[in-house]
Amino acid sequence: MGATINGIGLALPEHWVTQDDATQHALATSLASNGQRNFAARVYSNAGIMSRHSVLLEASSQAGEPVQQSYYSPASEEYRNGPSTAERMESYRAYASTLAHQAASEALADAGVEPGQVTQLVTVSCSGFYAPGFDVSLIQGLPMDAQVGRTHVGFMGCHGALNGLRVARMMADADPSACVLLVAVELCSLHYQYDWTPQRIVSNSLFADGAAALVVRGADAGEDGLAVRDNWSHVAPDSADAMTWNIGDHGFEMTLSPEVPTLIDQTLPACMEQWLGRHDLTVETVRNWAVHPGGPKILEACESTLKLPPSALAASRATLSKYGNMSSPTVLFVLRELLRSNGPGPTVMLGFGPGLAIEAALVG
Q1: Residue in 126, 158, 179, 188 annotated catalytic
Q2: Contact predicate 317/334, CB 8 Å
């Protein structure tokens, strides 16, 4: 056996907000017409989310009380866009390493691995930048050996943890003694947009904060872990504008075209069938589907085009409902839920990101 996942760790900010309260906050924060306000209320209501966590919250939701946060001031004619990108990156620096440390510590404990045993550290994030980054904070804080190898997978979007898993698998396959710690952390709530264009409203309604970590080991660790069998990647043709993630003056700006479900329908079935066939699998013989819950329509598109039973994406929908879209860590939340509820077996991890790019991993 080659690379195996031997530990999973998850972390969330302390405080959470209900989707109803998030809706009221959005309506109270920004300048908007009645039509825009009504549209936003519908989008938030249809997002498939009950609650989300954020590092910016000062208290969790309480019935009848406004959202407890002071970061985003109400918009005015003089203050129309919220904090600058520099201010948001200072907040990323302040909060990212704490969540990363919590997730990493839980994954190491789950694997029965001491920090000093880690030989390679792979970090993943698309929601912030600073250097030295949270990788150095992890090395010094856990602590790990100062000579641990470091690799950062940056700005790849919601499928970033799968790119990180590809790197970790290759490291573990190349070195049977390798012990790789993969840590993904995202603070998406730092990029709330005051813009009332439909795509900004959709992104505001979905995203949240969280972190997740994996311990991936080489063959010397034995056969107790979850085998990481393969990774797969595909960039859909003529889709560069379907999903984008750009750095603006007031945070990072996402666009999400309504054509994304159509692109998934056109691209995914044939590619997935071919890839699974290389492993003597079919869609029907896959036990678990850990699909990144980018939003209800993306899950519906995957379910429809792959002809999955209604129960197949229950863990993805439950994760979206409870935590929102945390970008790259989210698929690892789904994976742990599936392993606990369904048990091990052939499992496809699947995510979508700017490109439109599709990333997948076969584990189990």
Answers
A1: 158
A2: no
Average per-residue pLDDT for the chain: 95
CA distance 102 to 33: 42
Name the token pair of 139: 């090395």
Give the domain 226-363 fold. Answer: Peroxisomal Thiolase; Chain A, domain 1 (3.40.47)
DSSP 179: E
Which amino acid, residue 301? A
- The helix (run of H) or strand (run of E) holding residue 18 is strand 16-18
Q: Is 158 a catalytic residue?
A: yes
pTM above 0.90, yes or no: yes
Terminal C-alpha separation, the chain: 11
Please tell me whether the peptide bond between 143 and the residue prior to it is cis, using omega within 30 degrees of 0: yes
Check whether the bond before 293 is cis (ω within 30° of 0): no
pLDDT at 153 over 90: yes
- Do the beta carbons of residue 261 and residue 306 sit within 8 Å? no
CA distance 249 to 237: 30
Domain spans of the chain, in order of start: 226-363
What distance in Å separates the CA atoms of residue 144 and residue 139, rounded to the nearest whole number?
Answer: 5
Q: What is the CA radius of gyration of the chain?
A: 20
Q: What angle do CA 207, 211, 215 make, to 5 degrees?
A: 145
Alpha-carbon dihedral angle through residues 127, 130, 135, 141, given to the nearest 10 degrees: -110
- Specify the DSSP class assigned to residue 142: T
Q: Would you say 164 and 103 are in contact if contact means Cβ atoms under 8 Å apart?
A: no
The 10s digit of each residue's pLDDT in 277-322 is 999 999 999 999 999 999 999 999 999 999 999 899 999 999 999 9
pLDDT in tens, 240-258: 999 999 999 999 999 888 8
On whether the CB atoms of residues 22 and 15 are closer than 8 A, the answer is no
pLDDT for residue 261? 92
What's the pLDDT score for residue 75? 83
